[in-house]
Amino acid sequence: MKTMLIDDSTIMRLMLKKLLRQHDLTDIEEAGNGLEGIEILKNKPVDLILLDLHMPDLDGLGVLRILKNDDNLKDIPVIIVSSESEKEKISEGMKLGAASYVRKPFRDEEFKNAVSQALHEMTSE
Fold it and tell me: What is the total count of domains within the chain?
């Protein structure tokens, strides 16, 4: 199973990779901003996306809009992993089709639960 991390923080991507490996998810693509993430996704489809909302060039909500309007990318589950606390932005992300939201800083267990739930939903479809 291939996973994409889209986050402008190198340290956060390293932390997320470590946690993903605990779920035996080791085939991981990375992007440092939304534009880079979209370009990679067009050429290398993935099964799960972990997405930050606050990034340069193209923020997470912009990425979600592009994903959900692309027939080849719209069904990829997206977990928002962000420090965003504004309810309207979180709600918009969920309306745009995000599977779940994990607020930074998060507890490992909270993150693992979100990934487990997304993986379970993928395998039961």
Answer: 1
Distance separating alpha carbons of residues 98 and 91, to the nearest angstrom: 10
What distance in Å separates the CA atoms of residue 108 and residue 119, rounded to the nearest whole number? Answer: 16
What domain range includes position 14?
2-123
Instruction: Name the helix (H) or strand (E) containing 80.
Output: strand 78-82
CATH of the domain at 19: 3.40.50.2300
Judge contact between 55 and 34, C-beta under 8 A: yes
Give the pLDDT score at 5.
97
What is the pLDDT at residue 80?
94
**CA 94 to CA 97: how far, in whole Å?**
5
10-residue stretch averages of pLDDT, the chain, 125 residues long: 95 93 91 96 93 94 96 93 87 92 85 82 67
> Number of C-alpha atoms within 13 angstroms, CB side, residue 30?
14
